[in-house]
Every structure is written in C-alpha cells, then in structure tokens.
Amino acid sequence: MKYNHIETKVLHAGIEPDPSTGAIMTPIFQTSTYVQAAPGDHKGYEYARTQNPTRNALQQNLAALEQMKYGLCFSTGMGAVDACIKLLSPGDEVIATNDLYGGSYRIFTTVFAKMGIKFHFVDMSNPDNVSAAINSQTKMVWVETPTNPLLKIIDIESVAKIGHQAGAIVVVDNTFSSPYLQNPFKQGADIVMHSATKYINGHSDVVMGVLCVNDDDLHQRLAFLQNTCGATPGPMDCFLVLRGIKTLHIRMERHCQNGKKVAEYLAQHPKVGEVYWPGFENHPNHEVAKKQMRDFGGMISFTLKNDAIEPALTFLKSTKLFSLAESLGGVESLVGHPATMTHASIPKEQRIANGLKDSLIRLSVGIEHIDDLIADLDAALATA
Hints:
The chain is α/β, with parallel strands linked by helices. It is 38% helix and 15% strand. The longest helix is centred in the C-terminal third of the chain and has 21 residues, at 248-268.
C-alpha cells in the first residue's frame, strides 16, 4: 500500500507485522548467520553483515520517508560519508559546502585527499560559486542545507542542475532537517545522507548513518561498499531507530515550535548579537528555505553582542536544561561551542573566513516546555 503522508509513513512504510508471530514491532534479529537448506539455498539471508531483517525494515522505511527506492544504513554517519566518497577515484574532484560538519571536513581533507581526491570548499548559498568551481574533473557535489553551524540555506534545485550538467553525483546531507522538513530528492539530489544519530532517531541513544538513493546502479555500488567495507549497524541499533522514527513527525513539530520561540527571544535580547535561524525573513535565502522546507527546524546559532569568547564560555557553563554536549536532534536541548567541539578539526583561519567565530554558540532546541527553556537561557545570559 502506498502512503501519501509522512505521518503515516513513519509508522507503516516498509514495516509489516512479523509473519511468524504477528508481532507489530519489528523483531530484533540478533543473529550473525542464517541456516541454509543447501549451499546457496536460503531464505534471502546468508550473513548478518550483508543482510539482516531488522536492518532491512529500517532501510525500507527510510527510503519511503525520503521518497526514494533504496535506503542503506551504516554504523555511524561518518560510515555513510565514507561510502559516498569511495564511489570516486584518484584524480576526481569534489565541490563541497564551505560551512559543513567538522567530521565531514576532516575525512575529506585528512583521509581522502591523501588518496588523490581533491576538494574545493565554496559558499554554496550563491549557486554561481558552484558554477565557478566546476571543472572536467568534478565528479561529486556535496551539499549541506541548512549548514552546520551557520544555518546557511542552499538552493538544492539550482546546485543539483549545475552538478548534473557536469555529470557529477549530487549528495545532500539532510541531517539538520530530517525527512519531515525536507526531501532533497525532489529538488534533484542523487544521494540523500543523514546522521540518523540526530533527528531521525531523536533519543540520543544510537549512532547511525543513512544513505538513500533512487538509481538502481548507484544503489548496487553503494550496497557493495556497505557489505565489502562492513560499516553496518547491529540489529538492536536498527530496532531503536525504527522505534524513534515512529514519533519523528510529532517531535519535529515541537522542535520547530520551540525553535521559533527561542530564536525570537534571542533576537530581542540586549546581550545577543547575531542570531542564525532560517525562519527569519532577513535570513539569507529565507525564500529558498520557504520553498524547499516545510518548516525551519530547531537548530539555532548565535553570538553575544561583545563577540568575545570568554563570555560565551561563561554562558556555556551556566545553562542547566541546555546540556553542554556534542550532537543534536535529541528530545533534550543541547548547547555546544563549534570552534572547540564539533568543528575543532577545521583550521581556525578557515573557520573565521567562513564566518564561524570563536564566540559562536549552537543550540539544538529540544521538546521541553518553552517557558523552562527560555528561563534557562535567560539565567545563563545574565551571567555572560
């Protein structure tokens, strides 16, 4: 049965009651291997790195959420990134967003650059910058939108057209939005990537990566890498993510509601300088965000008006509900300092050139009561 609405897909797409027991929850198939009636005569499963029924259900569900044919799960988000770049060969070039997750930058520049793959980091908020960087060796375009941590908005459709004209694979890291807010395939993405650790799972108890694709050949190539390189998740983690997905739509609604109110509160606070949130009408490419997103999410970054690092660090140590921790997208609110945490692997001069100041603070706004969240921020700002 085809489901037209994501609120139904999160519960039912790709998921069937267990045929042997009728269990409505997908069982945890905690096995490493499967008995065969004769060599090569089996029930579709041979070895758990290659296939697992719990993982298959999750992959089918994720593909449906992104409105694509195939989903592939990896043990971490970085495992998914790794598989994407392994589609390339020495001499190939990648154009990547210049404001992106520090872990992606690190694996690009310290692992794959040594293998002969060249990376160009450009400000994709203006698609002309992508056109200017394209050359005959460009084989992949790597997009994050909204970006991490400055929440820049990239026009996926425009960038995808530029990439495809050059024959490049277009990858969109959709982690900040989740499939509830944005479906990059509809704007032309070939691969949609997620750190499912974040909003998709939503409970800060699993690390996992996801790739969704629609092309049969591209799926076969990535499935080969998934199996051959072996960065596959265990069935318990797959079960937990399946459980988390069931409330994705409800959680995202609250993340967006709380995010809007926190952004508006910060924008009027006398101690706050810049507030980065794509829901503001004056946010760069706000109209693009309105076009390709269903809402504006719960991720917010901001600076203090004095733009000094010491008051920012004082603020970070003063919050109570906003826990100081890496990661994002869980039900609980988190606060982080990108320059020393999630983006520390990016050289300072490059961070500053991209607009990522040492004083920047990043919030992942959770689903707590908004009055309690505002009170926590108010008390912390009083100390800064």
